[in-house]
């Protein structure tokens, strides 16, 4: 508690509460508007897609409200993230690089290749280690599959009805429109109705492999913390194992303890959805933006290069250096320099000096100070 009696109840990008009410910065207000708009659009989509809530399962209403909160939280935090000067600069430059009219087709094909390599195949993680890549693949595809099944059902966008006159067949409806029929005892029906089971069988071994690395790898253990690294694994494991227990209950145990397991599973799912905007799960939404950074780098490498004013060697892309100078100004950092380098070359900004020369200049400056101290002594 501060000396003025203010007790903050939130930190970081979220609003604070003082003695007069909630205090929000202009950035937080804009983010709150974005979050409310996103949650509102999702609510409208649920209302329309479920035909005025006609196909929403009452047992899943808790999931629906948790999803709306998650939508608000993710949009709020994403908006706050995009309002940071470095992120905003990368975001704008990335879209500008992607939408170049003369290279639109090449950029689109390159995007598909990178999306497949970076996201669908996780090539960058496989390069680190094969067990780590396998664990990430299992968790990612298990979560994507379960999300693709769960959310349309929770929102009432997809539902199934028996075919009139044929109780052995189901009809699939999407947004109220009939799509296709299938027999519930067919292989397709078995795979479809047990889709969440297959997803759980992917997530559980992936989580166990990731947890094994977290507790056995000393380098990972030294840097990890419970909230960011272990809690997401515990939540994914809890959701998956309780979902499997539900399938075991109604398949082989004649519904024994089904109600308790259903409540327990609902609690784990709802807590995971509520935690979605706050922890490591948020990187699911941040990661795609890195593709824009890659396009930005490609454009910079194809253009003019920044040359060090001290050694006259290229060391980075010019557009990156100029953008970095602009971002530093927005953040209040001033690295303008009007003096000379160790070789007598003039420089107008510290960013115009390559990293190697910065280290040399630092060593030279230390040598001069040491010489002055020694002479003075």
From TrEMBL:
Membrane-spanning residues: 31-48, 60-79, 138-160, 187-209, 230-250, 256-278
Domain of life: Bacteria
Swiss-Prot/TrEMBL keywords: Membrane, Transmembrane, Transmembrane helix
InterPro entries from the UniProt entry: NarG-like_sf
UniProt name for this protein: MFS transporter
Species this protein is from: Singulisphaera sp. Ch08
